[in-house]
Amino acid sequence: MGKVKIIATLGPSSRDYNVIRKMIKEGVAGFRINCAHGDENTWIEYVKLVRDASSDLGKAIPLILDTPGPQVRSGDFQEFTVKQGDNVVISSNPGNDGGEKKIIIVPAKEFYTAASTGDIILYGDGEISFRVVNTGEDFVEVVVLNDGVVKPRKKVVIEGKEYPVAFPSEVDRRVFKFAGDVKATFVALSYVRSLKDVELAKDVLSRHGWMPGLIAKIETRSGFINMGEIIEVVDGVIVARGDLGLHFPLEKLPLIQKEIVREAIKHGKTVIIATEILESMVNNPRPSRSDVVDLYNSVGDLVDAVLFTNETAIGKYPVEVVRWTRRIIEAAESELSRALISEYRGAIKAMNLLDKYVQGLVLLAESLGGTIVGYSKTGRMPTLVSKYRPQIKVYIGVSNRFLAEKLSIKYGLEITDMSQAIQDNLEKEYEVGVEKLVETLVKQNYLRPGDIVVETYAKPQTSIHEIRIRQII
Ligand SMILES: Nc1ncnc2c1ncn2[C@@H]1O[C@H](COP(=O)(O)OP(=O)(O)O)[C@@H](O)[C@H]1O
Ligand SMILES: C=C(OP(=O)(O)O)C(=O)O
Protein backbone atom coordinates (compact mmCIF):
# COMPACT_ATOMS: atom_id res chain seq x y z
CA MET A 1 0.00 0.00 0.00
CA GLY A 2 1.07 3.59 -0.59
CA LYS A 3 2.15 6.04 2.09
CA VAL A 4 -0.71 8.47 1.40
CA LYS A 5 -3.87 6.92 2.84
CA ILE A 6 -7.28 6.53 1.21
CA ILE A 7 -10.51 7.37 3.05
CA ALA A 8 -13.94 6.77 1.50
CA THR A 9 -17.37 8.22 2.29
CA LEU A 10 -20.07 5.57 2.57
CA GLY A 11 -23.38 6.01 0.79
CA PRO A 12 -25.90 4.13 -1.34
CA SER A 13 -23.09 2.91 -3.71
CA SER A 14 -21.05 1.36 -0.93
CA ARG A 15 -23.83 0.17 1.41
CA ASP A 16 -22.82 -3.44 0.88
CA TYR A 17 -20.56 -5.82 2.79
CA ASN A 18 -18.78 -7.15 -0.32
CA VAL A 19 -18.16 -3.69 -1.76
CA ILE A 20 -16.72 -2.47 1.55
CA ARG A 21 -14.56 -5.58 1.86
CA LYS A 22 -13.22 -5.11 -1.68
CA MET A 23 -12.54 -1.43 -1.00
CA ILE A 24 -10.46 -2.35 2.07
CA LYS A 25 -8.56 -5.00 0.12
CA GLU A 26 -7.84 -2.47 -2.63
CA GLY A 27 -6.41 -0.02 -0.10
CA VAL A 28 -9.07 1.96 1.81
CA ALA A 29 -7.61 2.81 5.22
CA GLY A 30 -10.72 4.42 6.71
CA PHE A 31 -14.39 5.25 6.14
CA ARG A 32 -16.45 8.38 6.69
CA ILE A 33 -20.16 8.47 7.43
CA ASN A 34 -21.68 11.83 6.53
CA CYS A 35 -24.30 12.25 9.26
CA ALA A 36 -25.99 15.07 7.33
CA HIS A 37 -27.74 12.14 5.64
CA GLY A 38 -29.89 9.44 7.24
CA ASP A 39 -30.26 8.93 10.99
CA GLU A 40 -29.02 6.65 13.78
CA ASN A 41 -30.62 3.63 12.09
CA THR A 42 -28.69 4.13 8.86
CA TRP A 43 -25.47 5.22 10.60
CA ILE A 44 -25.42 2.04 12.69
CA GLU A 45 -25.90 -0.06 9.58
CA TYR A 46 -22.74 1.46 8.04
CA VAL A 47 -20.82 1.05 11.31
CA LYS A 48 -21.70 -2.66 11.43
CA LEU A 49 -20.75 -3.25 7.79
CA VAL A 50 -17.33 -1.64 8.30
CA ARG A 51 -16.68 -3.40 11.63
CA ASP A 52 -17.66 -6.79 10.16
CA ALA A 53 -15.45 -6.36 7.09
CA SER A 54 -12.50 -5.02 9.09
CA SER A 55 -12.59 -7.83 11.66
CA ASP A 56 -12.93 -10.45 8.90
CA LEU A 57 -9.85 -8.99 7.20
CA GLY A 58 -7.99 -8.52 10.52
CA LYS A 59 -7.41 -4.79 9.87
CA ALA A 60 -7.96 -1.79 12.12
CA ILE A 61 -10.20 0.47 10.04
CA PRO A 62 -11.08 3.88 11.50
CA LEU A 63 -14.58 5.30 11.30
CA ILE A 64 -15.04 9.05 10.93
CA LEU A 65 -18.48 10.37 11.89
CA ASP A 66 -18.92 13.66 10.09
CA THR A 67 -21.24 16.13 11.83
CA PRO A 68 -23.34 18.44 9.65
CA GLY A 69 -22.36 21.47 11.77
CA PRO A 70 -24.25 24.75 11.63
CA GLN A 71 -25.10 24.37 7.96
CA VAL A 72 -28.36 24.95 6.11
CA ARG A 73 -29.73 22.19 3.89
CA SER A 74 -32.88 21.78 1.86
CA GLY A 75 -35.49 19.35 3.18
CA ASP A 76 -37.28 16.48 1.49
CA PHE A 77 -39.18 17.14 -1.74
CA GLN A 78 -39.46 15.62 -5.20
CA GLU A 79 -36.47 16.62 -7.36
CA PHE A 80 -37.25 18.82 -10.36
CA THR A 81 -35.44 20.37 -13.33
CA VAL A 82 -34.93 24.10 -13.72
CA LYS A 83 -33.88 26.27 -16.64
CA GLN A 84 -31.96 29.52 -16.63
CA GLY A 85 -34.40 32.40 -16.06
CA ASP A 86 -37.06 30.29 -14.26
CA ASN A 87 -38.66 31.77 -11.15
CA VAL A 88 -38.54 29.46 -8.13
CA VAL A 89 -39.73 29.83 -4.55
CA ILE A 90 -37.69 28.70 -1.58
CA SER A 91 -39.88 28.27 1.48
CA SER A 92 -40.00 26.68 4.90
CA ASN A 93 -43.65 25.93 4.32
CA PRO A 94 -44.57 23.29 1.71
CA GLY A 95 -47.96 24.94 1.19
CA ASN A 96 -46.47 28.40 0.62
CA ASP A 97 -45.73 28.16 -3.08
CA GLY A 98 -47.70 31.24 -4.12
CA GLY A 99 -49.17 29.29 -7.01
CA GLU A 100 -45.72 28.15 -8.20
CA LYS A 101 -45.09 24.45 -8.87
CA LYS A 102 -41.35 24.60 -8.34
CA ILE A 103 -40.69 24.96 -4.63
CA ILE A 104 -37.55 24.19 -2.70
CA ILE A 105 -38.17 23.39 0.96
CA VAL A 106 -35.58 24.92 3.29
CA PRO A 107 -36.69 24.51 6.92
CA ALA A 108 -33.99 26.60 8.71
CA LYS A 109 -35.29 30.04 9.73
CA GLU A 110 -31.72 31.41 9.73
CA PHE A 111 -31.77 31.18 5.94
CA TYR A 112 -34.67 33.66 5.68
CA THR A 113 -33.05 36.05 8.16
CA ALA A 114 -29.76 36.04 6.22
CA ALA A 115 -31.08 36.26 2.61
CA SER A 116 -31.43 39.71 0.99
CA THR A 117 -32.47 40.83 -2.48
CA GLY A 118 -29.53 40.57 -4.89
CA ASP A 119 -27.80 37.72 -2.96
CA ILE A 120 -26.44 34.76 -4.92
CA ILE A 121 -27.43 31.35 -3.57
CA LEU A 122 -25.22 28.34 -4.31
CA TYR A 123 -27.02 25.02 -4.21
CA GLY A 124 -25.38 21.63 -3.48
CA ASP A 125 -21.70 21.99 -4.27
CA GLY A 126 -22.59 24.93 -6.53
CA GLU A 127 -24.13 22.88 -9.37
CA ILE A 128 -27.02 25.37 -9.53
CA SER A 129 -27.10 29.02 -8.50
CA PHE A 130 -29.93 31.46 -7.98
CA ARG A 131 -30.28 35.22 -7.52
CA VAL A 132 -32.69 36.47 -4.84
CA VAL A 133 -35.35 38.80 -6.24
CA ASN A 134 -37.71 39.05 -3.26
CA THR A 135 -37.70 38.04 0.42
CA GLY A 136 -40.37 37.38 3.06
CA GLU A 137 -40.50 36.00 6.60
CA ASP A 138 -40.60 32.35 5.50
CA PHE A 139 -39.99 32.49 1.76
CA VAL A 140 -37.48 33.79 -0.76
CA GLU A 141 -38.16 34.23 -4.48
CA VAL A 142 -35.22 33.52 -6.76
CA VAL A 143 -34.38 33.49 -10.43
CA VAL A 144 -32.41 30.49 -11.71
CA LEU A 145 -28.96 31.35 -13.14
CA ASN A 146 -28.18 28.01 -14.82
CA ASP A 147 -29.99 24.87 -15.97
CA GLY A 148 -29.91 21.83 -13.67
CA VAL A 149 -31.74 19.39 -11.42
CA VAL A 150 -32.73 20.61 -7.95
CA LYS A 151 -32.27 17.62 -5.63
CA PRO A 152 -33.47 17.39 -2.01
CA ARG A 153 -31.18 17.47 1.10
CA LYS A 154 -28.46 19.58 -0.50
CA LYS A 155 -26.44 22.40 1.06
CA VAL A 156 -27.76 25.93 0.62
CA VAL A 157 -25.09 28.63 0.84
CA ILE A 158 -25.50 32.38 0.42
CA GLU A 159 -22.36 33.64 -1.29
CA GLY A 160 -20.19 35.70 1.08
CA LYS A 161 -22.40 35.08 4.16
CA GLU A 162 -22.22 32.74 7.15
CA TYR A 163 -25.39 31.69 8.99
CA PRO A 164 -25.60 32.57 12.68
CA VAL A 165 -26.59 28.97 13.55
CA ALA A 166 -25.76 27.63 17.03
CA PHE A 167 -22.75 25.30 17.31
CA PRO A 168 -23.01 22.38 17.94
CA SER A 169 -26.30 21.95 16.08
CA GLU A 170 -29.05 19.63 17.25
CA VAL A 171 -27.91 16.88 14.84
CA ASP A 172 -24.25 17.40 15.91
CA ARG A 173 -25.30 16.58 19.49
CA ARG A 174 -26.97 13.39 18.31
CA VAL A 175 -23.81 12.47 16.41
CA PHE A 176 -21.70 13.08 19.55
CA LYS A 177 -23.91 10.73 21.52
CA PHE A 178 -23.85 8.14 18.74
CA ALA A 179 -20.02 8.42 18.61
CA GLY A 180 -19.96 7.39 22.27
CA ASP A 181 -22.45 4.56 21.72
CA VAL A 182 -20.37 2.99 18.92
CA LYS A 183 -16.93 4.14 20.14
CA ALA A 184 -16.18 5.91 16.86
CA THR A 185 -12.54 6.60 16.04
CA PHE A 186 -13.02 10.20 14.93
CA VAL A 187 -15.64 12.89 14.86
CA ALA A 188 -15.25 15.47 12.10
CA LEU A 189 -16.49 18.95 12.98
CA SER A 190 -18.04 20.83 10.08
CA TYR A 191 -18.02 24.62 9.71
CA VAL A 192 -15.68 25.10 12.67
CA ARG A 193 -15.18 28.83 13.01
CA SER A 194 -12.84 29.17 15.97
CA LEU A 195 -11.11 27.51 18.90
CA LYS A 196 -14.30 28.15 20.91
CA ASP A 197 -16.31 25.89 18.59
CA VAL A 198 -13.87 23.00 19.16
CA GLU A 199 -13.99 23.54 22.92
CA LEU A 200 -17.80 23.50 22.90
CA ALA A 201 -17.73 20.21 20.93
CA LYS A 202 -15.20 18.67 23.33
CA ASP A 203 -17.33 19.69 26.28
CA VAL A 204 -20.46 17.97 24.90
CA LEU A 205 -18.48 14.91 23.76
CA SER A 206 -16.88 14.43 27.17
CA ARG A 207 -20.32 14.11 28.75
CA HIS A 208 -20.87 10.89 26.75
CA GLY A 209 -17.85 9.21 28.34
CA TRP A 210 -15.92 8.62 25.10
CA MET A 211 -13.44 11.01 23.53
CA PRO A 212 -12.92 10.20 19.85
CA GLY A 213 -10.14 11.82 17.85
CA LEU A 214 -11.21 15.23 16.55
CA ILE A 215 -10.88 16.40 12.99
CA ALA A 216 -11.77 19.98 12.08
CA LYS A 217 -13.08 20.67 8.61
CA ILE A 218 -11.63 23.92 7.34
CA GLU A 219 -14.28 25.21 4.97
CA THR A 220 -15.44 28.73 5.82
CA ARG A 221 -13.75 32.12 5.80
CA SER A 222 -13.59 32.32 9.60
CA GLY A 223 -12.36 28.70 9.85
CA PHE A 224 -9.58 29.51 7.40
CA ILE A 225 -8.62 32.77 9.14
CA ASN A 226 -8.55 31.04 12.56
CA MET A 227 -7.01 27.75 11.39
CA GLY A 228 -3.83 28.21 13.50
CA GLU A 229 -5.70 28.15 16.83
CA ILE A 230 -8.07 25.42 15.58
CA ILE A 231 -5.28 23.09 14.42
CA GLU A 232 -3.59 23.37 17.84
CA VAL A 233 -6.49 21.61 19.60
CA VAL A 234 -7.50 18.87 17.14
CA ASP A 235 -5.89 15.67 15.84
CA GLY A 236 -6.23 16.64 12.24
CA VAL A 237 -7.92 18.75 9.60
CA ILE A 238 -9.87 18.15 6.43
CA VAL A 239 -9.33 20.56 3.56
CA ALA A 240 -13.04 20.54 2.65
CA ARG A 241 -12.74 21.68 -0.95
CA GLY A 242 -16.49 21.33 -1.55
CA ASP A 243 -17.40 24.09 0.87
CA LEU A 244 -14.21 26.09 0.43
CA GLY A 245 -15.23 26.38 -3.22
CA LEU A 246 -18.53 27.92 -2.12
CA HIS A 247 -17.03 30.36 0.38
CA PHE A 248 -14.02 31.52 -1.66
CA PRO A 249 -13.52 32.30 -5.35
CA LEU A 250 -12.66 28.96 -6.99
CA GLU A 251 -9.35 30.25 -8.36
CA LYS A 252 -8.17 30.86 -4.77
CA LEU A 253 -8.61 27.16 -3.92
CA PRO A 254 -5.13 25.92 -4.93
CA LEU A 255 -3.38 28.45 -2.68
CA ILE A 256 -5.85 27.88 0.19
CA GLN A 257 -5.26 24.11 -0.02
CA LYS A 258 -1.48 24.61 0.11
CA GLU A 259 -1.74 27.02 3.08
CA ILE A 260 -3.92 24.65 5.13
CA VAL A 261 -1.61 21.70 4.35
CA ARG A 262 1.47 23.71 5.36
CA GLU A 263 -0.13 24.87 8.64
CA ALA A 264 -1.25 21.33 9.60
CA ILE A 265 2.17 19.85 8.83
CA LYS A 266 3.90 22.61 10.83
CA HIS A 267 1.83 21.53 13.85
CA GLY A 268 2.44 17.80 13.19
CA LYS A 269 -1.30 17.20 12.69
CA THR A 270 -3.01 14.88 10.20
CA VAL A 271 -4.10 16.60 6.99
CA ILE A 272 -6.72 15.17 4.64
CA ILE A 273 -7.73 16.56 1.23
CA ALA A 274 -11.42 16.06 0.45
CA THR A 275 -13.88 16.33 -2.42
CA GLU A 276 -13.57 16.06 -6.19
CA ILE A 277 -10.45 13.90 -5.91
CA LEU A 278 -11.50 11.64 -8.82
CA GLU A 279 -14.90 13.25 -9.48
CA SER A 280 -14.74 12.14 -13.14
CA MET A 281 -15.11 8.55 -11.87
CA VAL A 282 -18.62 9.14 -10.46
CA ASN A 283 -19.95 8.04 -13.86
CA ASN A 284 -16.85 6.65 -15.60
CA PRO A 285 -14.60 3.67 -14.95
CA ARG A 286 -11.47 5.76 -15.80
CA PRO A 287 -10.44 9.10 -14.30
CA SER A 288 -9.95 12.29 -16.32
CA ARG A 289 -6.43 13.56 -17.00
CA SER A 290 -6.96 16.61 -14.78
CA ASP A 291 -8.13 14.45 -11.86
CA VAL A 292 -5.05 12.23 -12.19
CA VAL A 293 -2.75 15.27 -12.23
CA ASP A 294 -4.52 16.85 -9.21
CA LEU A 295 -4.21 13.65 -7.15
CA TYR A 296 -0.58 13.20 -8.21
CA ASN A 297 0.16 16.77 -7.07
CA SER A 298 -1.54 16.23 -3.68
CA VAL A 299 0.77 13.24 -3.13
CA GLY A 300 3.65 15.63 -3.91
CA ASP A 301 2.30 18.00 -1.22
CA LEU A 302 2.90 15.09 1.22
CA VAL A 303 -0.64 15.07 2.65
CA ASP A 304 -1.61 12.22 5.00
CA ALA A 305 -4.73 11.15 3.17
CA VAL A 306 -7.29 11.83 0.47
CA LEU A 307 -11.01 11.57 1.18
CA PHE A 308 -13.58 10.56 -1.43
CA THR A 309 -17.15 11.91 -1.23
CA ASN A 310 -19.45 11.51 -4.28
CA GLU A 311 -17.08 8.97 -5.89
CA THR A 312 -17.68 6.28 -3.27
CA ALA A 313 -21.07 7.44 -1.84
CA ILE A 314 -23.13 7.76 -5.02
CA GLY A 315 -20.64 6.94 -7.80
CA LYS A 316 -20.96 3.92 -10.07
CA TYR A 317 -17.42 2.63 -9.48
CA PRO A 318 -16.48 2.77 -5.76
CA VAL A 319 -14.01 -0.13 -5.97
CA GLU A 320 -12.38 1.03 -9.23
CA VAL A 321 -11.92 4.50 -7.67
CA VAL A 322 -9.77 2.94 -4.94
CA ARG A 323 -7.83 0.83 -7.46
CA TRP A 324 -7.02 3.88 -9.60
CA THR A 325 -6.09 5.92 -6.55
CA ARG A 326 -3.60 3.32 -5.44
CA ARG A 327 -2.04 3.27 -8.90
CA ILE A 328 -1.72 7.06 -8.98
CA ILE A 329 -0.40 7.30 -5.40
CA GLU A 330 2.19 4.58 -6.02
CA ALA A 331 3.39 6.25 -9.23
CA ALA A 332 3.59 9.67 -7.58
CA GLU A 333 5.45 8.27 -4.57
CA SER A 334 7.99 6.43 -6.68
CA GLU A 335 8.77 9.72 -8.45
CA LEU A 336 9.08 12.00 -5.37
CA SER A 337 12.35 13.90 -5.48
CA ARG A 338 14.89 13.94 -2.64
CA ALA A 339 14.92 17.74 -2.90
CA LEU A 340 11.20 17.87 -2.13
CA ILE A 341 11.58 15.68 0.95
CA SER A 342 14.52 17.66 2.32
CA GLU A 343 12.77 20.96 1.67
CA TYR A 344 9.77 19.60 3.56
CA ARG A 345 11.87 18.41 6.50
CA GLY A 346 13.84 21.66 6.56
CA ALA A 347 10.59 23.48 7.38
CA ILE A 348 9.84 21.35 10.48
CA LYS A 349 11.38 22.07 13.87
CA ALA A 350 12.03 19.20 16.30
CA MET A 351 10.23 20.21 19.51
CA ASN A 352 11.80 18.01 22.21
CA LEU A 353 14.07 15.02 22.86
CA LEU A 354 11.60 12.42 21.58
CA ASP A 355 11.03 14.48 18.45
CA LYS A 356 14.80 14.78 17.81
CA TYR A 357 15.29 11.07 18.44
CA VAL A 358 12.56 10.21 15.94
CA GLN A 359 14.06 12.57 13.37
CA GLY A 360 17.36 10.68 13.75
CA LEU A 361 15.57 7.32 13.68
CA VAL A 362 13.99 8.07 10.30
CA LEU A 363 17.31 9.29 8.84
CA LEU A 364 19.13 6.22 10.20
CA ALA A 365 16.60 3.78 8.77
CA GLU A 366 16.65 5.55 5.40
CA SER A 367 20.45 5.57 5.23
CA LEU A 368 20.50 1.82 6.02
CA GLY A 369 17.77 1.14 3.47
CA GLY A 370 15.99 -0.54 6.38
CA THR A 371 12.44 -1.02 7.65
CA ILE A 372 11.28 0.55 10.92
CA VAL A 373 9.42 -1.82 13.22
CA GLY A 374 8.20 -0.16 16.40
CA TYR A 375 5.80 -0.53 19.29
CA SER A 376 3.77 2.25 20.86
CA LYS A 377 1.40 2.50 23.77
CA THR A 378 0.42 6.16 23.46
CA GLY A 379 0.83 6.90 19.75
CA ARG A 380 3.37 9.72 20.34
CA MET A 381 6.38 8.04 18.69
CA PRO A 382 4.59 6.89 15.48
CA THR A 383 2.89 10.28 15.14
CA LEU A 384 6.33 11.88 15.07
CA VAL A 385 7.71 9.23 12.68
CA SER A 386 4.86 10.03 10.29
CA LYS A 387 5.53 13.77 10.64
CA TYR A 388 8.98 13.29 9.07
CA ARG A 389 7.35 11.63 6.04
CA PRO A 390 9.54 8.49 6.12
CA GLN A 391 10.54 7.20 2.70
CA ILE A 392 11.04 3.63 3.94
CA LYS A 393 8.47 1.08 5.24
CA VAL A 394 7.25 1.66 8.81
CA TYR A 395 5.37 -1.03 10.75
CA ILE A 396 4.06 -0.08 14.18
CA GLY A 397 2.41 -2.36 16.73
CA VAL A 398 0.12 -0.69 19.25
CA SER A 399 -1.53 -1.61 22.51
CA ASN A 400 -5.23 -1.33 21.56
CA ARG A 401 -7.66 -1.22 18.66
CA PHE A 402 -8.72 2.41 19.12
CA LEU A 403 -5.10 3.59 18.87
CA ALA A 404 -4.53 1.33 15.86
CA GLU A 405 -7.54 2.91 14.14
CA LYS A 406 -6.47 6.44 15.05
CA LEU A 407 -2.97 6.06 13.62
CA SER A 408 -4.04 4.21 10.46
CA ILE A 409 -4.85 7.40 8.50
CA LYS A 410 -1.37 8.85 9.04
CA TYR A 411 1.23 9.11 6.31
CA GLY A 412 3.49 6.09 5.85
CA LEU A 413 2.41 4.03 8.88
CA GLU A 414 1.30 0.38 8.68
CA ILE A 415 -0.40 -0.26 12.01
CA THR A 416 -1.11 -3.56 13.78
CA ASP A 417 -3.21 -3.93 16.93
CA MET A 418 -1.01 -6.10 19.22
CA SER A 419 -3.39 -6.25 22.21
CA GLN A 420 -3.79 -10.05 21.93
CA ALA A 421 -0.05 -10.70 21.46
CA ILE A 422 1.05 -8.70 24.50
CA GLN A 423 -1.75 -9.52 26.94
CA ASP A 424 0.28 -12.08 28.95
CA ASN A 425 3.40 -9.91 29.00
CA LEU A 426 2.15 -6.49 29.94
CA GLU A 427 5.25 -5.66 32.05
CA LYS A 428 7.46 -6.20 28.96
CA GLU A 429 4.97 -5.06 26.36
CA TYR A 430 7.42 -2.84 24.43
CA GLU A 431 10.03 -5.58 23.98
CA VAL A 432 7.46 -8.31 23.31
CA GLY A 433 5.44 -6.03 21.04
CA VAL A 434 8.39 -5.41 18.72
CA GLU A 435 9.60 -9.02 18.79
CA LYS A 436 6.18 -10.47 17.97
CA LEU A 437 5.56 -7.93 15.24
CA VAL A 438 8.88 -8.79 13.55
CA GLU A 439 7.95 -12.49 13.83
CA THR A 440 4.57 -11.87 12.18
CA LEU A 441 6.09 -9.74 9.40
CA VAL A 442 8.63 -12.48 8.63
CA LYS A 443 5.86 -15.10 8.59
CA GLN A 444 3.78 -12.96 6.22
CA ASN A 445 6.83 -12.40 3.98
CA TYR A 446 6.84 -8.63 4.50
CA LEU A 447 10.37 -9.11 5.93
CA ARG A 448 12.78 -11.48 4.19
CA PRO A 449 16.28 -12.83 4.84
CA GLY A 450 18.85 -10.06 4.36
CA ASP A 451 16.39 -7.23 5.21
CA ILE A 452 17.59 -4.66 7.73
CA VAL A 453 15.16 -3.85 10.49
CA VAL A 454 15.45 -0.82 12.75
CA GLU A 455 13.55 -1.87 15.87
CA THR A 456 12.41 0.85 18.21
CA TYR A 457 10.26 2.01 21.09
CA ALA A 458 10.13 5.00 23.39
CA LYS A 459 9.04 4.20 26.93
CA PRO A 460 7.35 7.30 28.31
CA GLN A 461 7.68 6.40 32.02
CA THR A 462 11.44 5.88 31.87
CA SER A 463 12.45 8.36 29.14
CA ILE A 464 14.37 5.46 27.58
CA HIS A 465 14.27 5.47 23.79
CA GLU A 466 15.76 2.37 22.24
CA ILE A 467 16.96 1.62 18.73
CA ARG A 468 18.23 -1.82 17.75
CA ILE A 469 19.40 -2.84 14.31
CA ARG A 470 18.85 -6.41 13.20
CA GLN A 471 19.38 -8.20 9.93
CA ILE A 472 16.83 -10.91 9.16
CA ILE A 473 18.53 -14.29 8.70
N1 LIG B 1 -25.48 8.22 4.40
C1 LIG B 1 -25.92 8.58 3.19
N2 LIG B 1 -27.15 8.21 2.77
C2 LIG B 1 -27.61 8.58 1.56
N3 LIG B 1 -26.92 9.33 0.69
C3 LIG B 1 -25.70 9.74 1.05
C4 LIG B 1 -25.13 9.39 2.32
N4 LIG B 1 -23.91 9.94 2.41
C5 LIG B 1 -23.70 10.60 1.24
N5 LIG B 1 -24.77 10.48 0.43
C6 LIG B 1 -24.93 11.02 -0.92
O1 LIG B 1 -23.63 11.24 -1.45
C7 LIG B 1 -23.47 12.63 -1.78
C8 LIG B 1 -22.02 13.01 -1.53
O2 LIG B 1 -21.66 12.88 -0.19
P1 LIG B 1 -21.06 14.12 0.62
O3 LIG B 1 -20.11 14.88 -0.22
O4 LIG B 1 -20.57 13.58 1.90
O5 LIG B 1 -22.37 14.96 0.90
P2 LIG B 1 -22.79 16.48 0.74
O6 LIG B 1 -22.06 17.06 -0.44
O7 LIG B 1 -24.27 16.39 0.56
O8 LIG B 1 -22.40 17.13 2.02
C9 LIG B 1 -24.50 13.35 -0.92
O9 LIG B 1 -24.89 14.60 -1.45
C10 LIG B 1 -25.65 12.35 -0.93
O10 LIG B 1 -26.38 12.46 -2.13
C1 LIG C 1 -16.16 17.11 2.61
C2 LIG C 1 -16.88 18.20 2.57
O1 LIG C 1 -17.96 18.36 3.39
P1 LIG C 1 -19.49 17.93 3.11
O2 LIG C 1 -19.50 16.73 2.24
O3 LIG C 1 -20.05 17.69 4.47
O4 LIG C 1 -20.10 19.10 2.48
C3 LIG C 1 -16.52 19.35 1.69
O5 LIG C 1 -17.14 20.41 1.83
O6 LIG C 1 -15.58 19.20 0.89
UniProtKB/TrEMBL annotation:
It holds the Pfam family PK. Its EC number is 2.7.1.40. Keywords: ATP-binding, Glycolysis, Kinase, Magnesium, Metal-binding, Nucleotide-binding, Pyruvate, Transferase. Pathway: Carbohydrate degradation; glycolysis; pyruvate from D-glyceraldehyde 3-phosphate: step 5/5. Residues 3-322 form the Pyruvate kinase barrel domain. Residues 370-460 form the Pyruvate kinase C-terminal domain. It comes from the Archaea. The keyword Chloroplast does not apply. One of its GO terms (molecular function) is pyruvate kinase activity. It catalyses: pyruvate + ATP = phosphoenolpyruvate + ADP + H(+). PANTHER family: PYRUVATE KINASE (PTHR11817). Belongs to the pyruvate kinase family. This is Pyruvate kinase.
